[in-house]
């Protein structure tokens, strides 16, 4: 049991540490990041219940509806909802890169609990594959969501456009991931290039968010200089 719990937690913890430590302008308060992680973990239960009802009642099932709507959209919407209503206006969200940290946190909370449940049901031998695919993909969906939330909060214009994209793009990517996994017989031949693309896109957003944070803090320094110098 301890081995399964450890294997279930380890990939999420490793990925969370990676994105957390890349914050070059002071790490986010651990308590807020941990709270976001817990919110993501708790989301597993209502989402699993809704998905179970959909399956029993044969609602939103099929080659398109199940991977994109009852799985991709449902999961990404709840994660987006948590970020928007608990973190987006929070005082700790004070630079664009913070969106990456909080997006990864809520997604990895969800992925970690889901991973533990899966390993309990199916066995420890799936731990490596789960770390490479579902856990890392959830982290990257969260990174991309957080990038656009940060862009929305700190851009001088088009805030609504970036806010829409913060849900739309993770939903499309998550739905595509599910579609490959569920509907394609030879799914691995498509999943490998998809995951390479997803990592490329996620890390590109991380780099862009860090550059946006650089610009944000440099502007703050320029604005504060006259007051510091007494002019």
From TrEMBL:
It is a multi-pass membrane protein. Its EC number is 3.4.-.-. Pfam families: PrsW-protease. InterPro entries: Peptidase_PrsW_arch/bac, PrsW. Keywords: Cell membrane, Hydrolase, Membrane, Metalloprotease, Protease, Transmembrane, Transmembrane helix. The chain crosses the membrane at residues 6-21, 33-54, 69-88, 100-121, 127-150, 162-181, 187-203. It is found in: Cell membrane. It comes from the Bacteria. Signal peptide: none annotated. One of its GO terms (molecular function) is metallopeptidase activity. It is an enzyme of class 3 (hydrolase). Belongs to the protease PrsW family. NCBIfam families: intramemb_PrsW. Involved in the degradation of specific anti-sigma factors. This is Protease PrsW. The lineage of its organism: Bacteria, Bacillati, Bacillota, Bacilli, Bacillales.
